[in-house]
Every structure is written in C-alpha cells, then in structure tokens.
C-alpha cells in the first residue's frame, strides 16, 4: 500500500522513538508483574489496525531484559527470537528496521517499521572481554538502540533514581565504545545526570534521550536538565518527549503539557533535535476504572523492588489521558499548529529528526 492511497498517513513519517504495538486490553494478568515479556504481549488485529490508522510509520520497541528476576543474557536472546517470529508472521504489516532507509520503506509501503531496542544494557555482561562480543551479536541480531541503564544503577552507570549520581563506570566506557563500533544508538533516557553527561561526552557517535521530559518544567529525576538536553543536541543527537505523568509535578499530565515540553526542548536544542517517544502503544486502555485498580498494585510492586521512579503513584496514569488512542498523533499535530509551528517543523518533530539521527548513527 502506498501512502498516496492511504488516507490515515500524513505526507511525512511518524516515528515513535519509544513505544509499543500491543493491545493493552488483551493482556494476560500482567499487572502484578514487574516486566511483561514479549511472549505475553498481544499484538492482534486491532492493535495493528489502530497503529496504522494513527499514521505511525515506525516504533522503537523494548525487548530483552529490563528488570526483574529473569537471567539477562539468555532472556534477551529469547526475546530476540520472539520478536523475529512476531515480525515474520506479519510481513504485510511489519518490517524489521536495520537502517534508516527501512523506515522510509515502511512509510512508502504502508507498513510499520519495528526498531529493536533495549531499556537496560546489563545483558552485555560484566566481563570486559565479553562486552564487545555480545554487542556484536546483538547488532547482528538487529538491535539498533541500547539504553545504558534503567532507573536503578547497574555495572555501567547510574539510573535516574540512583542517589549517588555517579558517572559512567569503566565498563560503561567499554560498552559505549562497543556500541559506537557497531553503530548502535546509545540511549540515555533513564540514566542519571552524570551518567548521561559522561556518555554524551564519551561517545564518538551522537547519542539520544529517546523518551524524557524537561526538568526545567517539572523537576523530577526522569526528566532531563537543560545541560543534558543541550549537550546531546550540540553533538548531533536526538531528544524524544514522552506522554508520561512526569511532565507535571501533579502526575496528571495533559496534551498541553506534552506540547509545553516539546516547545521547551526545541528552544533548548533547536528544531532539528527534538521528536517524540511516547512510552506507550497506540491502542488505548478501554476500561480505565479497572486499569486504575490494577495499577495501584503494580506501582506498589515496582516501589518494593526499587525500580520505580519519583512521580509514580497509584493515582497517576502512565500515559496522557487526552493524548492516547488512534488520534494521538493527529491531536498533537493540531496542538503544535495552534502554537504556531509550521508543517516543516512539525514534520521534523513527528519523525524527521529521528530519521535524520538514524542516518547519522546507523549509516555504514
């Protein structure tokens, strides 16, 4: 299907720098689990139809180990197998993204590009001699984005909730070098401030913060300071703004808050470095009352395990209620237009900037 005959797709690509393709209404009992595995995701006809109807061109999905009790390296290899099977079973809908040109191809063919990404790099291992080998394997398997840490500290550096706020460790430097060698994106979304700044200065390739907010507008650890945002942008990197409760101190973020953070990020980084990383799927939760009841238990479990973030509460939804579902991207485009943004700038924010960043990092 070409974009010329598809009324749902705009004339420019929409790229979600961190999101999902699942139908959250069809999930098995997963609310009490810290991390839902890829096998448990339900990527059904509704989810795919709504993702296409939203205009989505490509999405960086999370696979592999992020947190919990599963063995990081074996679990990550298994998740790669699972996602290869998911895509192979849906060739008319999905396209595995290995280079920026695959995103352009997905846009032209009316498919959705799937970018393999990690939200924790612990699977690279703790042996210096093995890090390069594992990164090379992940690259061969199609991984294109590697976030160094989740909220907590690991052996590479500190997450945003680690109180010590250390910088990159020695093994963290080794890992960044290996990711650079194999032209994988270094994502610093959940990293602590010093780890983020160290990685941005250390990396010979531009780095990204694929899903975050601006700490100048909401002083919470999951948001990034202007210093972090500016440094990433100055070095040719990318910053994606999320649709998450951390955009406000109240935890009840609105579509207007998303726009405010995008505008601030553009002011700090310039219009060529900012995009979106929603941190959620297109398909919306149907029964919000039932979801809220499950959410309280899930937030409490994350807190007990030490992996939650400041701003997560039982009364805060992990999405923006008035910016979800099939119309989320069209709504955001309309709100940006109302703020005076012209089509060229909007096209950059909605996907063009991520695509240009991918060209810079993934190009052979």
From TrEMBL:
Gene Ontology biological process terms, A to Z: proteolysis
Stored Gene3D superfamilies: Metal-dependent hydrolases (3.20.20.140)
InterPro entries (UniProt xref): Metal_Hydrolase (IPR032466), Pept_M19 (IPR008257)
SUPFAM superfamilies linked to this entry: Metallo-dependent hydrolases
A GO term for molecular function: metallodipeptidase activity
Renumbered residue ranges of the record's region Disordered: 1-33
Protein's name in the database: Peptidase M19
Native source organism of the sequence: Streptacidiphilus pinicola
Lineage: Bacteria, Bacillati, Actinomycetota, Actinomycetes, Kitasatosporales
